[in-house]
Specification:
The chain is mainly β. The chain has a domain of 83 residues. The chain contains 2 helices and 9 strands. The chain is globular. The two termini are 23 Å apart.
Length: 127
């Protein structure tokens, strides 16, 4: 399943931190997507898929593309919302890996998986 989350430019953050412990090096990757909207469809999506593991494909503002997570050791989803005068939500995908972020030439599904068909009927787009 492919879900595309489009957010306003310069609002998402992608952080990577390296730590060395008794098990060797580990890389903590966090991708945070603040969403300034009520977005009930996002709440329903989080409730439906919150326990899954994810592979994160991200593109930064310079066009650099990154991959984090594997099918065996995927990223975990966390989510929170603030219900005040102005509704907001924070979607976070977080993972721990033995490898740093991988660089990709593209994050477009048609390029990465040329022989697959994708269902884009559900697209989380907030602008």
């Amino acid at each position: 399943m492919v879900t595309e989350v489009k957010c306003r430019p310069l609002t998402a953050t992608l952080n990577e931190a390296r730590a060395t412990g008794s098990d060797g090096e580990a890389y903590q990757v966090d991708c945070q997507l603040p969403i300034l909207a009520d977005a009930p469809e996002l709440v329903a999506w989080v409730n439906r898929h919150g326990r899954r593991r994810f592979v994160l494909l991200a593109r930064d503002t310079l066009g650099n593309c990154y991959l984090s997570g594997t099918p065996a050791n995927g990223m975990r989803l966390s989510w929170g919302r603030q219900i005040t005068a102005r509704h907001s939500q924070n979607l976070v995908v977080r993972g721990l890996s033995q490898r740093p972020l991988a660089r990709l030439a593209s994050v477009d599904p048609e390029v990465l998986f040329p022989n697959r068909e994708f269902d884009y009927t559900f697209d989380l787009s907030f602008s």
